[in-house]
């Protein structure tokens, strides 16, 4: 039995695709779903914070603390498979040490910054922060953003994640910077609140895209 030229061309194209794109492994799904969970939980926590008096009402306060801390842990956990893959050190940044340090560093800084927010805003709201302490917190937030930006850039350059997932983390970093600018310069509360939800919505979308991504095959 002979194979016609069109069929041969189709099989050649399919073989080429298989050589460059691997199956859908578990680590992008794990990382993506953790980011989705973190974004959804943070959306709920933000809604409670905006609509209820978390500082004085125990019910909303407990719900906010649980949702906020759980969302933080989910985002931090998502950085591990993104940076290290299935444990073989070959995640979304490939073999890049800079990318691994950036993603894992972002996770550590994000945990520290979110924890400090809870302490200064709600647990010890009357504690006076010195100018040096304030400058330190601002610097930590800036470094956190830079770390995610570097990690996202390395992911794009590595090309391990395919399609929109390749750009998802970089997009989250840019949305984070936009949120920071709005919170810094805007005096309109409604705009600041809207940007919080833009940020958490972007997290959910990015997580869904990453969770459905295939990865580049071995070259």
From TrEMBL:
Coiled coil: none annotated. The chain crosses the membrane at residues 31-50, 62-84, 91-112, 132-155, 167-188, 194-211. Keywords: Membrane, Transmembrane, Transmembrane helix. The keyword Signal does not apply. Residues 1-21 have a biased composition (Low complexity). The keyword Transmembrane applies. Residues 1-25 are annotated as: Disordered. This is Uncharacterized protein. It comes from Microbacterium proteolyticum. The lineage of its organism: Bacteria, Bacillati, Actinomycetota, Actinomycetes, Micrococcales.
């Amino acid at each position: 039995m002979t194979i016609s030229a069109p069929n041969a061309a189709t099989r050649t194209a399919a073989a080429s695709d298989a050589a460059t794109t691997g199956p859908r492994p578990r680590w992008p799904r794990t990382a993506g779903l953790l980011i989705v969970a973190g974004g959804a939980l943070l959306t709920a926590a933000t809604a409670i914070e905006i609509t209820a008096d978390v500082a004085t009402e125990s019910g909303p306060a407990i719900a906010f603390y649980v949702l906020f801390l759980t969302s933080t842990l989910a985002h931090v956990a998502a950085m591990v498979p993104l940076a290290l893959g299935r444990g073989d050190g070959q995640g979304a940044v490939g073999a890049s040490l800079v990318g691994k340090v950036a993603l894992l560093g972002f996770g550590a800084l994000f945990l520290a910054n979110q924890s400090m927010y809870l302490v200064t805003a709600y647990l010890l709201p009357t504690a006076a922060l010195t100018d040096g302490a304030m400058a330190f917190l601002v610097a930590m937030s800036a470094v956190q953003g830079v770390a995610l930006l570097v990690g996202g850039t390395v992911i794009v350059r590595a090309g391990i994640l395919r399609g929109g997932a390749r750009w998802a983390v970089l997009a989250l970093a840019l949305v984070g910077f936009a949120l920071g600018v709005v919170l810094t310069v805007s005096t309109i509360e409604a705009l600041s609140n809207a940007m919080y939800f833009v940020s958490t919505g972007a997290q959910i979308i990015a997580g869904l895209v990453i969770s459905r991504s295939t990865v580049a095959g071995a070259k």
